[in-house]
Specification:
The protein has 341 residues and is α/β, with parallel strands linked by helices. Helices cover 43% and strands 15% of the residues. Strand 6, helix 9 and strand 7 form a beta-alpha-beta unit.
């Protein structure tokens, strides 16, 4: 049979002290004698008493709790970002609760309702693919609950953001292919309703234009989720198209790995016949043969930065803090899928 939780009132009744005396003793208040403090703490330990942190936080109007909404926990990028968030939050005395939208707007809205009920101190969000506007986050702004968006953000919603320069990263990746001699470069693109994937496509096109190469729409394939299977289908279309690419820039590593495997199976050598660049630097990019050249999008640092920004806004809640956008620097990691012998 479950036993009821021991409260300060139970301790006060046992020791024939007032509740305030017990509370002061438990908190080592100087007005309570050392002997009484020792006795109160001894009994509290014997009976298994521990503070009701929820009630205490409500009295202080603070929960030291952060809600984090991510599209998919099983994607390495978000796992790393969560690790960065959790590391900073733990060191600052905050707990983190993770919610997964699975790229569903309906689930994302439902999660915001849960977070309103749970009275979190702040929220970190990466938007789902179905999210076209952020009106469901407006309530938090009205309640003065700080919000920080990372990676997938809304340009129309006023809040702090932590991002990378997707355009610049894609430009850098595509130019790398051009400088190694590729002239017919394909792109496997992400969902174009999301700004980050639009920017990656535009960066790819800008690099071609800068080097006087044609932007051939037949060499651009679109995906919904940038899954491995979608990558296979896109690579097969590029393989059977009228213009065979000699380079591919992919909007993530999964589709880049698909491309390597499809072209290798068809008898093409990577990188001699076709060079491939991915995006995100997933662990598998170091294992695939040949190893994958990719953009390291610094997901862990992005999570750390988002958490630091949010906690500063929570701690300085009495001050007016203007929303800010922090851009994390990316890195092109060159491996065997583009490396010349």
């Amino acid at each position: 049979m479950a036993t009821s939780r021991i409260t300060i009132k139970d301790l006060a009744k046992r020791m024939n002290f007032s509740v305030s005396t017990i509370s002061r003793a438990l908190h080592d208040h100087p007005s309570i004698g050392k002997k009484t403090t020792r006795e109160v703490k001894k009994l509290a330990k014997e009976l298994g008493y521990f503070p009701n942190s929820v009630a205490s936080n409500l009295r202080r109007n603070k929960t030291t709790s952060i809600g984090v909404i991510v599209p998919r926990i099983d994607i390495h990028f978000h796992s790393l970002a969560i690790s960065g968030i959790e590391e900073v939050a733990y060191k600052s005395g905050y707990t983190v609760t993770i919610y997964q939208s699975r790229d569903s707007l309906e689930r994302e809205v439902s999660i915001t309702n849960i977070l309103q009920t749970n009275m979190v101190d702040g929220i970190i969000i990466c938007l789902g693919l179905e999210t076209k506007d952020c009106k469901h986050f407006t309530r938090f702004r009205e309640l003065s609950v700080p919000l920080v968006f990372y990676d997938r953000v809304s340009d129309d919603f006023e809040a702090s953001k932590v991002i990378i320069d997707d355009f610049e990263a894609a430009f850098k990746a595509t130019e790398h292919l051009i400088l190694r001699g590729c002239t017919k470069i394909a792109h496997i693109a992400g969902c174009q309703s999301m700004n980050i994937f639009k920017a990656r496509k535009e960066g790819y096109k800008a690099a071609l234009t800068k080097h006087n190469l044609e932007v051939d729409d037949s060499l651009i394939e679109y995906t919904t989720e940038l899954s491995y299977d979608e990558g296979v289908e896109c690579a097969k279309k590029l393989l059977s198209g009228k213009v065979r690419p000699d380079g591919i820039f992919c909007a993530n590593d999964y589709t880049a790995i698909s491309s390597i495997q499809v072209f290798t199976k068809a008898g093409f050598h990577v990188p001699n016949d076709i060079a491939v660049v991915g995006f995100s630097n997933y662990p598998i990019s170091k294992i695939i043969e040949p190893t994958l050249t990719t953009i390291d999008d610094q997901a862990f640092e992005m999570g750390q930065t988002a958490a630091k920004l949010l906690i500063r806004q929570i701690e300085e809640k009495d001050h007016v803090i203007a929303s800010e956008t922090i851009v994390i620097k990316t890195e092109l990691v060159i491996r065997d899928s583009t490396r010349t012998s």
